[in-house]
Design goal:
Elements lengths: L1 E6 L10 H4 L8 H25 L3 E6 L18 E4 L3 E3 L5 E3 L9 E7 L18 E6 L2 E3 L1 H10 L5 E7 H10 L4 E8 L5 E2 L3 H20 L13 E7 L2 H8 L5 E2 L4 E6 L7 H4 L5
Parallel strand pairs: 1-2, 1-6, 2-3, 6-9, 9-10
Antiparallel strand pairs: 4-5, 7-8, 7-12, 10-11, 12-14, 13-14
Length: 282
């Protein structure tokens, strides 16, 4: 069994402050940034170990937060069954530069730990969808967040979303859109910038238990349907401003719908973002 873990950071265990996740902002103290990165790396190690102990044969870890670069790979759990991609774009085993290297039809389950709710979600910690300039992202008219658009990309190869970890709002979003997905809610929002929850060790135990449950379901043949929106696929984004829409509409693949909305039509699910920013297989 091969699993693909695409890690974000806002939803990891014990990370309760905005500055711990968006640590590159110049006003963030170095010790706050370090605390956030340590929480992320501890979560990755714990979840990977749980997957292997539960019977996964191979785990691919890909760091997507702010494009990646958050994991200190020499310090991570070392096991020949684990492959690390330190950035969300890079070369896989086939040598091709692409988004989510090594995600393909040989993967049995797609996991989204450390994730968050989509832009505009009430009672959510740091809700957004890829860019603060994107207020609503839609696939064939259905509003989705990063969870949905990443699951759509995996759906190109028929790989189902099987697990999501994050705050309560992000987990509710996943459960509403993907019946059968296993979730681990490790925090709850107190405001858009702060949250609370169990201590990191307890949250990691919960996550490990849910990862083990996910592996057990897959081993038992309980494989959810992949997210496969009908093709050709219409993808639209409502932007935060007319200026943001202006910039997007300069691309030849983008059509202006109204003052703040742009859209594109794609023939492959792996092109869910490529029409706008070039992110995809090539």
């Amino acid at each position: 069994m091969k699993l693909y873990m695409l890690w974000d950071m806002e939803g990891v265990s014990g990370l309760f402050e905005r500055d711990q996740a968006w640590y590159w902002h110049p006003e963030v103290p170095p010790e706050t940034a370090e605390a956030g990165l340590r929480l992320l790396m501890a979560d990755v190690d714990s979840a990977v170990a749980a997957a292997l102990a539960a019977g996964a044969d191979e785990v691919i870890v890909c760091d997507t937060h702010h494009g990646g670069g958050n994991l200190r790979l020499p310090e991570m759990l070392r096991d020949p069954r684990v492959t690390y991609h330190g950035h969300s774009r890079g070369a896989g085993r086939d040598g091709r530069e692409r988004w989510m290297p090594d995600l393909d039809e040989t993967v049995d389950g797609f996991l989204l730990p450390g994730h968050h709710a989509k832009a505009g979600t009430p009672d959510a910690f740091l809700p957004h969808t890829s860019s603060l300039a994107w207020l609503d992202f839609r696939i064939n008219g259905r509003s989705v967040g990063e969870i949905g658009l990443e699951a759509c990309y995996a759906g190109h190869w028929g790989v189902p979303l099987v697990f999501v970890q994050g705050d309560e709002a992000g987990c509710r979003e996943a459960e509403a859109q993907f019946p059968g997905v296993v979730t681990a809610a490790v925090k709850r929002a107190e405001s858009a910038d702060r949250c609370a929850g169990p201590d990191p060790a307890a949250a990691r135990r919960l996550t490990a238990d849910r990862v083990a449950e996910t592996v057990a379901r897959l081993r038992a043949g309980e494989r959810p349907a992949p997210y496969a929106p009908a093709l050709p696929m219409t993808v639209s984004i409502r932007m935060a401003s007319a200026e943001d829409a202006d910039r997007a509409a300069r691309r030849p693949t983008v059509r202006r719908v109204d003052e703040v909305t742009v859209e594109g039509v794609v023939e492959r699910r792996c092109d869910v973002l490529k029409w706008l920013n070039g992110t995809g297989l090539d």
